[in-house]
Amino acid sequence: MKDHDETGEGRMVHPTPQLDELEGGPWPSFVTGLKRLRDQGAPNNQKMMNDLLGQLNHSYENRLGYWKGGTVSVFGYGGGIIPRFSEVAEKFPESKEFHTLRVMPPAGYHYTTDILRKLCDIWERHGSGLIAFHGQSGDIMFQGCTTENTQKAFDELNEIGFDLGGAGPALRTAMSCVGHARCEQSCYDEVRAHRTIINKLLDEMHRPSLPYKFKFKFSGCANDCVNAIHRADFAVIGTWRDDIKINQEKVKEHIKEKGRRYTTDTVLKMCPTRAISLNDDDTLEIDNKSCVRCMHCINVMTKALSPGDDRGISIMVGGKRALKIGDLMGIMVVPFMKLESDEDFEKLEDLAERLVEFFADNALEHERIGETIDRIGLPAFLEAMEIEPDPNMVNHPRTSCYVRTDDFDEEAAKWFDRQAAETAAE
Amino acid sequence: MNNQANTPRVPDEVGVPDPFQYMHPVLKANYGNWDWHDRPRPGVLRHVSKSGDVIYTVRAGTQRQMDVFTVRRLCDIGDQYADGHVRFTTRSNIEFMVADENKVAPLIEALEEAGFPVGGTGASVSMISHTQGWLHCDIPGTDASGVVKGLMDMLHKEFVQEKMPNRLRITTSCCQINCGGQGDIAVNVQYTKPPKINHDLVANVCERPAVVARCPVAAIRPAMVNGKPSLEVDEKKCVCCGACYPPCPPMQINGADSTKIAIWVGGKHSNARSKPTFHKLAVANLPNNAPHWPEVQDVVRRIVKAYKSDAQHWERMGEWIDRIGWKRFFEMTDLAFTKHHLETWTGARNTMNMSAHLHF
């Protein structure tokens, strides 16, 4: 089908001179894909994509967007559909409704080709044939559905085991890294943590009633491949308490291959706490009490070094982007907890539930949990969550003297009691 | 609610699907039992399990917004070479896992022949994490897929090889909400004019107190305009962030000429070496020049070139700049340092140099 040709039903193909510019070059072109749907797609995809391409080209020419929101949902759910109605529907009627279904992917983004083909077939029948793997929310984005077909598409997706994700003031779709499935640096079972928490709190996703969005993300180590600290209200980051494991033979091989100078420059000098020494016999020595578990040396020497055996998680709370008080990263709230036994997972689930409940009860409308913590102060938040203060929560103790300290001795006694209890437990 | 069927089907609230039913059998068998990995060549990972099992992963770039034909083509390749299992990365790359080393080369060949670049591993420029833009968003200032297509065409070579000092992560966002997230380089819309208000529509479309509350600088107040309840903006206070636009579309923040692009540098998610950082402003006011955004491409090219030529191995963008200093960064990239680079937001003072440490 060429520009200006007529389609089978006598409709003109919209010229797309702006978009045509994006078909050359070595990177896969989304425009070529849209045109494939227009020219070779199922009849319903063809019509919709012709007008969608027309509207998109119109945006490129005028440098403005032409979608507005609205209300579309499926039976039983209050969220998960992103409604889009065209503001230029008179010119591009076939894509006047172009809603997105946010669908939760399997944890860790694993698929068989068989299930992908099924997803394609459903979307070809009921939607536009355009799918994003994946949106920034972590969802599979099934883009381009009429209001009428939204329920049909969801029903079929749901029949094969997929569920809608989050949108609006609700629990949002979570993300987890590849983790245990294919990474030796992973410090906990990400799939289990991810599914345990989200599936427990599912009601908060499907029936939005929180003050604002709430996101969980799960990274198996401090490399934080799913960007949890920046982007999640509740970030679960894998870590370990004991010593980094060193295979000295592999250290020697690494140095032999890369050179002593290169190893000094890229491993020793780059350790943030100067915790690594290179011995004269080309073995490594690590001061594990000074190590901050940043992962750098392990990233460089993937065969020689690995996280210790006493693994678990850290939890950081309050990450978000600019709106409204500015960017926030998660604050370290739980420096370490084990996550191996059923009991450990129950503890994590309980903490997640209590935290979301606290958010629901205490955040102002359109306030993220990080903003709530800023507003009320970390001590009040910790008290509500029944978490004791810990030096790992701060870069340094307070510098301002404007604080009332008449109960300092009682608080200090609690600290010493906790220390004694921990020593006794070991 | 759209009750589209006569007898509505009650959803089966299955939640997050169990990935083990889709996972490659070698990954499943070695779940939590991996020992080490290396990268035999760019775009290929080799993971070795404590059991002795080996799995090769071949990573390829996609356009993210995929038509069903593209997905099926990838599935055909997966069926033929990779036992019918795939996964995606957070940056929309697709990964094929193969246990047989002999299948790696033919798999790469098939992907490249089908137009999917193999790479994105190690010290490369991986796929740009991006947003929806004009294609689907209700508040976009620019397109996302188009900007990304142009940048990835330009940076294609850096995707398929591992010749950067460390990984370089680029993000793009079509409004200042910044759904694309933090990046070594972030290409984000930056509005430059206060919203233009259609006073005829505000009362019917917008929940006015919510809009007033949304403004980060308290520049919006209720007002009667032409006898109708509406909102007005103190344009001297307004920081042109666009936060009022999503809850109140009649407060149009976008303009064909006033919507600009800003480029930010030095954001980092990982905790490796230095703590995670936010990206910082490099340049603002670049034109929103579809379909190729040449001015944006030019600045990104300069920043990538300076980083590539000057950073030490394993230094991320922000760590490199920390070492050489911002003065040298602006010199090397031929960008201007202006009063707009000085933070004025909450915590601004913490961003100032309160020492006698200087770079000359």
Structure overview:
- The complex is a heterodimer of chains A (426) and B (360).
- With 426 residues, chain A is α+β, with helices and mostly antiparallel strands.
- Chain A folds into three domains: 1-167, Alpha-Beta Plaits (2-Layer Sandwich); 175-241 and 315-425, 2-Layer Sandwich (Sulfite Reductase Hemoprotein, domain 1), CATH 3.30.413.10; 245-306, 2-Layer Sandwich (Alpha-Beta Plaits), CATH 3.30.70.20.
- Chain A is built from 15 helices and 16 strands.
- In chain A, the strands form five sheets. Chain A has a five-stranded mixed β-sheet with strand order 8-9-10-15-16.
- In chain A, strand 6 (127-133) and strand 7 form a beta hairpin.
- Chain A starts with 16 loop residues before the first helix and ends with a helix.
- By secondary structure, chain B is of the alpha+beta class.
- Chain B has three domains: 19-113, Alpha-Beta Plaits, CATH 3.30.70; 133-192 and 256-342, Sulfite Reductase Hemoprotein, domain 1, CATH 3.30.413; 196-252, Alpha-Beta Plaits, CATH 3.30.70.
- Helices cover 26% and strands 21% of the residues of chain B.
- Chain B has nine helices and 14 strands.
- Chain B has helices spanning 25-29, 68-81, 104-113, 145-160, 199-205, 208-214, 294-310, 317-324, 326-333, and strands at 34-41, 44-49, 54-60, 65-67, 85-88, 94-98, 170-173, 185-191, 196-197, 220-225, 228-233, 251-252, 259-265, 280-287.
- In chain B, the strands form four sheets. In chain B, strands 1-2-3-6-5 form a five-stranded antiparallel β-sheet, covered by helices on one side. Chain B has a four-stranded mixed β-sheet with strand order 7-8-13-14, with helices on one face. A two-stranded antiparallel sheet of chain B has the order 9-12.
- In chain B, strand 2 (44-49) and strand 3 (54-60) form a beta hairpin.
- In chain B, helix 2 runs antiparallel to helix 3.
